């Protein structure tokens, strides 16, 4: 042991010390505690999945049961029958949703990232004030900003168009705040090196900042996607042919108690896509949340 280098000795002793402080009871307690919270978190999802396959008599049973006793596809069959009788093809609703989600998400990432770059890496008159205003804007709920958004869209003559949903999504300060806090961590030396190689600001943004901020903008894509996927158009879109699929499904759900089973199927369908997107990209989300706001 005495022949080992001093550095190796320190590492060994620190690990040994940590092992001594470990307790099997403590580890087991922590695992049990986290497991209980995990079960508590997953319970609503399990309940939604089971409800989608329950017949009506099981849905209305009291006290409610978590797991389905007699699985059935009746709820989904009824949903497809109702959709088939709609005077607007469901493919049109689906196209509207895909277009609004894709355009809103893409514009949110690009505009948020381009605005975050100068705020994160440059100091100019009013930059600190802008950063503070961005933080303050996060405190306002969407309900509070709905009326100002409507007035702005009305003045721009964009009511009852796709732009009434896309532009507010593009101007979301949440994406700007997230990208700014992540870009602050990127060393300034990389920007200086790129400038010495003759790169302009746009080249630095696309070839240096964006690749290094991959986990941040993937997280932003997920957040924006989840928000836009479930939008109904609110008070901005009135033409039936422009409404998203979530609106059509919400109309089905609101038809009465007899469609409670169909409503359960609709809830499951609307959850599937966001969950799949999140599962695929969860490693980037965890990385962003773990490192955002930490300067090296």
Automatic annotation (TrEMBL):
One of its GO terms (biological process) is transmembrane transport. Keywords: Cell membrane, Membrane, Transmembrane, Transmembrane helix, Transport. It is a multi-pass membrane protein. Residues 94-281 form the ABC transmembrane type-1 domain. GO terms for cellular component: plasma membrane. The chain crosses the membrane at residues 93-121, 133-153, 159-179, 216-238, 258-280. The keyword Transmembrane helix applies. It is found in: Cell membrane. It comes from the Bacteria. Gene3D superfamilies: MetI-like (1.10.3720.10). InterPro entries: MetI-like (IPR000515), MetI-like_sf (IPR035906). CDD domains: TM_PBP2. Belongs to the binding-protein-dependent transport system permease family. This is ABC-type glycerol-3-phosphate transport system permease component. It comes from Paenibacillus cellulosilyticus. The lineage of its organism: Bacteria, Bacillati, Bacillota, Bacilli, Bacillales.
